[in-house]
Amino acid sequence: MTLFAPEPRRRSRARTLGWAFVIGAVVLGLLASFLPSPYLIEVPGPVYNTIGTQEQGQGKDAKEVELIQISGRKTYPTSGALDMLTVGVQGDATHRPSWTSVIRALFTKSQAVVPASQIYPPGTTNEQISQQDTADMQQSQQSAVAAALVQQDIPVPTELEVGTVQKGSAADGTIEKGDVIRAFDGTQLTEDVDASSLRAAVAKHGTSSPATVTIERDGTERQVRVTPREQDGTALLGVGVVERYDFPFDVKITLQDVGGPSAGMMFALGIIDEITPGKLNGGEHVAGTGTITAQGQVGPIGGIRQKMYGAKDAGATIFLAPADNCDEVVGHVPDGLDVYKVGTLDQAVTDLQTIAAGKSTAGLARCTS
């Protein structure tokens, strides 16, 4: 008589289940390694010193080129760094990182996982996003030059040129692409203006009556009548305008393979450092980010956490962050990096002058909430 005959069968079943679990885990792991996810991964990107140089060209043709080149105006020596920062993205509109990469990124402080649709909206292509990023960078550079000159009390005549006219809008059939808007209902739009100036004038007029819009077309100034229409609770003409500036001297910003508007503030600071005596940053290694308007308003950007880590890795000890990004900054500042919040170019300049003079920074605003 064998009293324990069934035991080997139970052990065999347990062993089978164990192997099935291991094999299943391996299969799932392999699938996670190869199956694309619906996410993209943001990582710290290259860092560029706006008062420094960038290597351009390849092979024997490679050379160091100053990012900011100014002619027709006296310039002054600079030192240290005023770094602009970028965010790299793993994946694009058609290629996505694997689930393994996504899970790894979730546990990496310097990386962020974002829905692919946040960067590549449905129906858009890699080429379309690249073109938009390039356009944003070009407009940002022009706004940075204007903001730097305005901050230095240098007059900058400005034009608002119509870049797009929404089909079926109030302006459709009356205002055309390429028109320059000189005035709206008596409000002059010729100096120290941007797109927000036109939006404010239209909103103030409302939708109850026609407005007189002064435009220049083919060198001839004329007046047209347009009644704004309400959309999402706001009075709109239905045009998109681009700021065109008449600068008193030449400022050329040379930067390859970088797009988007987030370097505006740092370009403006770099220009100010170049055209004013002394060292704006006191020779310190400063980094920062933020969009800029011609009036010097600093706006929020994406990827602030990745940019802080990029700044730290590049050697920066001081970081200027847009005030509107503070909620993303608190609790995520890398060790050794002092972060100051700024809302205007004037404030950024004042903060840097305080640091350069070796004064106490206790009174400077920080992201605390």
Tell me the distance between the termini: 78 Å
Order of helices and strands: HEEEEEHEHHEEEHEEEEEEHEEEHEHEH
Strand portion? 25-35%
Task: Give, in spatial order, the strands making up the sheet with the most strands.
Answer: 6-1-5-16-19-20
Low-confidence runs: 1-5
Q: How is the quaternary structure best described? A: single chain
| Residues in helices, as a percent range | 25-40%
Q: Please identify the structural class as seen in this structure.
A: alpha+beta
Number of strands: 20
Tally of helical segments: 9
CA radius of gyration is: 27 Å
Described by strand count, sense and barrel closure, the largest sheet is: 6 strands, mixed
Shape: globular
Q: Indicate the mean pLDDT.
A: 87
Structural overview:
The chain has 369 residues and is of the alpha+beta class. It contains nine helices and 20 strands. The strands form six sheets. The chain has a six-stranded mixed sheet with strand order 6-1-5-16-19-20. Strands 7, 8, 9, 10, 11 and 14 form a six-stranded antiparallel sheet that branches. A hairpin with a 5-residue loop joins strand 17 and strand 18. Helix 4 packs parallel to helix 6 (264-275). It starts with 6 loop residues before the first helix and ends in a 13-residue tail after the last helix.
